[in-house]
């Protein structure tokens, strides 16, 4: 009963809705276990770094503030571990729905959302690479400083000839900002977008997987609602039978 009351206060919902949310949270945890979804340490660190950036403070300051508010460092990491696992669960649910998108729907989405599939012809990037993700994060927070263990290399990239997902990441990252950190063979990489030149519409046949992702994302709320409703319905049936 305490958990229901706490949920009612946190979410400002009725007792019935609070109970539904608690059941749904438990079902999500079961799905995460069933699918063997793990949150690696790098992903957890990235979320903590992102939270610190949103607050406009350093990582150490953010952690210190959370500890002063009554959270232990272990509780903080556990919170972001759960967050990462839920995000990965959402990705798995959405990826399982890609197969239901047909060719006509892909073309229709492509033709009506061409701005999403237009990208610069070339970008000038500064690649940051390190074996130490924490050192990489420090370098990204202080681009003008030299951080030990982090290599930087500037290059000009023609987007038409590279992996479409990487090309889209470069295209979607605003000029003057970093991409997300990516892992490549044990190395952590991030790219600073220094400049963009020209503009091209990517050919339909080359980017079908990317279009599928966008179509599924456009249906995200509906797909998740239907998936969670099925989980809740099965849980309620089991509860009634028991």
From TrEMBL:
Gene Ontology MF annotations: peptidyl-prolyl cis-trans isomerase activity
Domain of life, per lineage: Bacteria
Keyword Cytoplasm annotated: no
Keywords: Signal
UniProt keyword Transmembrane present: no
InterPro entries documented for this protein: Cj1289-like_C, OMP_Chaperone_SurA, PPIase_dom_sf, Trigger_fact/SurA_dom_sf
Domain Cj1289-like C-terminal: residue ranges: 104-196
Pfam families according to UniProt: Cj1289-like_C
PANTHER family: CHAPERONE SURA
Protein name per the record: Cj1289-like C-terminal domain-containing protein
Native species: Helicobacter enhydrae
Source lineage: Bacteria, Pseudomonadati, Campylobacterota, Epsilonproteobacteria, Campylobacterales
């Amino acid at each position: 009963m305490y958990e229901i009351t706490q949920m009612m206060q946190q979410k400002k919902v009725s007792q019935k809705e609070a109970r539904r949310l608690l059941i749904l949270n438990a079902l999500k945890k079961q799905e995460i276990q069933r699918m063997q979804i793990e949150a690696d340490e790098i992903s957890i660190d990235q979320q903590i770094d992102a939270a610190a950036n949103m607050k406009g403070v350093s990582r150490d300051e953010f952690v210190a503030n959370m500890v002063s508010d009554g959270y232990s460092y272990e509780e903080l990491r556990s919170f972001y571990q759960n967050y990462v696992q839920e995000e990965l669960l959402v990705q798995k649910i959405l990826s399982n729905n890609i197969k239901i998108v047909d060719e006509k729907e892909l073309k229709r989405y492509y033709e009506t959302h061409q701005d999403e599939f237009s990208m610069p012809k070339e970008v000038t990037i500064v690649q940051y690479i390190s074996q130490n993700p924490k050192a990489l994060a420090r370098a990204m927070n202080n681009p003008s400083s030299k951080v030990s263990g982090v290599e930087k290399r500037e290059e000009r990239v023609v987007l038409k000839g590279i992996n479409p997902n990487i090309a889209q990441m470069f295209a979607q990252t605003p000029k003057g900002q970093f991409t997300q950190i990516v892992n490549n063979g044990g190395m952590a990489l991030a790219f600073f977008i220094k400049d963009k030149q020209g503009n091209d519409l990517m050919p339909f046949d080359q980017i079908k997987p990317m279009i599928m992702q966008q179509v599924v994302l456009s249906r995200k709320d509906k797909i998740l609602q239907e998936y969670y409703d099925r989980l809740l319905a099965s849980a309620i049936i089991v509860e009634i039978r028991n």
